[in-house]
Amino acid sequence: MERLVSNWYNHRALPESYICPPETRPGKLSIPSGDTIPVVNLGEALINRSNTILNVLRASQEFGFFQVVNHGVSEKVLNDTMNVVEEFFKMPMEEKASLYSEDPNKVCRLYTSNINYGTEKYHFWRDILKHHCHPLDDCIKLWPQKPTRYRDVIRTFSVEGKKLGLTILELLTEGLGLESGYFKKDLSEAMLLVANHYPPCPDPSLTLGLPKHCDPNLITILLQGHTFGLQVFKDGQWIGVQPLPNALVVNIGHQLRIVSNNKLKSAEHRAVTNSKVARTTVGLFISSSEDSIIEPAKSLTNAAQPPLYRAFRYKEFLSYYFSMMGDTELALQPFKLPFNQSVIS
Ligand code: OGA
Ligand code: NI
């Protein structure tokens, strides 16, 4: 519990254990201005569905990241969600103590830094609240009891966020030419909520809130609030994700990259800190059920475009991903098919 950054950040200079190696430091954070990820108006789908599909598909192919506006999740739901999660992190430590755990198997927990505080080489400037959202009626009983509105507000956000995720997946299904409902069942059955809290940091140039990674799941929907901090790695450069009012950020995870046989991109991204204000984000990680089989969709592969990955169970992927501390290409390695083998199969 003492390890939570929010517990000690305003009493100390940046501890040495939070300083990243020079090659991963954000430095002065100069981001090329004008360069950002696409913004897709989902409201347009009602009048020009094919154009919306094209926009979502292009953004997923080129960036693996986009923002959506007119997405159907109301401003009230977004504000309530951000407010209740911010309130959670502001509560006195005693109120949160029972949720703190360093056991990754705990289904609802408060922890800090990244995958494993005990074994990581250096730490990250972040506290995290993470819990399952499926099956909702079972796991809601394990969610925080305070703030008292937490369960109600987050239930609504998770239901509406999931619906939005499925809408986007269906647009991608059509865009890729897969059979309708391809992602509807096992492949998108599970969901995790991850609330990230990045307190103000004494030296944002030396540390990261979250290291460069790709999300392991199918697709992620992120409410990033008003404060800049999310960056996407594209063509060898970091580009910033502009906070936009009432927008949600969407990114393709590794499973969608695999199922699409690399037609869609799972982009690397990271979070930087700032010295002025705390930044809070709320992510919904739509995932396959642990036993579901992940493989490139049969209709997207043929002799000319052989499958680039073997079939595997999602839980096998997850445990390897976490053992590699989220390292993007290493995490995918054992699931890739050697080119000649894929031609034969
Ligand atoms: C994540 C993530 C970005 C952010 O939680 O996987 O990429 O800005 N978060 O908090
Ligand atoms: Ni991420």
UniProtKB/TrEMBL annotation:
It holds the Pfam family DIOX_N. Keywords: Dioxygenase, Iron, Metal-binding, Oxidoreductase. Its cofactor is L-ascorbate. It comes from the Eukaryota. GO terms for biological process: defense response to oomycetes. Residues 187-288 form the Fe2OG dioxygenase domain. PROSITE patterns: FE2OG_OXY. SUPFAM superfamilies: Clavaminate synthase-like. It catalyses: salicylate + NADH + O2 + H(+) = 2,3-dihydroxybenzoate + NAD(+) + H2O. GO terms for molecular function: dioxygenase activity; metal ion binding. Belongs to the iron/ascorbate-dependent oxidoreductase family. This is Fe2OG dioxygenase domain-containing protein. It comes from Gossypium aridum.
